[in-house]
Design brief:
Order of helices and strands: EHEHHEHEEHEH
Structural class: alpha/beta
Radius of gyration: 15 Å
Largest sheet: 6 strands, parallel
Strand order of the largest sheet: 2-1-3-4-5-6
Strand content: 15-25%
Shape: globular
CATH architecture: 3-Layer(aba) Sandwich
CATH topology: Rossmann fold
Number of strands: 6
Oligomer: single chain
Length: 189
Amino acid sequence: MNIILFHSTYGLRPAVGAAAEKLREAGHQVRVPDLFDGKTFATIEEGMAFKEELGSEELLKRAVTASAPHSDQGLVYAGFSLGGSLAQNVALADEKARGLLLLHGTSDIAEDASVDELPVQLHVADPDPFESHDWLTAWYLRMQRIGADVEVHRYPGAGHLYTDPELADYDAEAAERTWQTALGFLDSL
């Protein structure tokens, strides 16, 4: 599978490279664009401040630019938190998208969005400070209405970015379950 993997608001840190390597070891081709031009951040607040400075429109443009040369291959879009939001937005606009793997993040859904049974898998902490239960319920129903085939996996007690071993949110057991499930999802595409 050809995968494009977008980093979180922390930037392109070693944990993202390690995740890409895990996917490569499972036989996938993975591209990991650096949407922050080499900048990484120690806190979510610093990363979000940079995102605001850069602007959501510019960030989405960078994600589209990174994906466009490979989209004719039928990409699986994936991302961590903010990167998940970007992956969702780009995938829903790409009629050749093969799948969408969201780790810790979702996004608003455009009113005119429509997909043809796009396989989508979301992994999220429960509760998650950035993805409330009400939000996730509405997101799930809206994704189904636009034609996505959605699975949601929740991990009680895990922190927001629980798959990143460099962060306080890390939960080894939840991370292991996430990767096992995600790799099965990718193999099914």
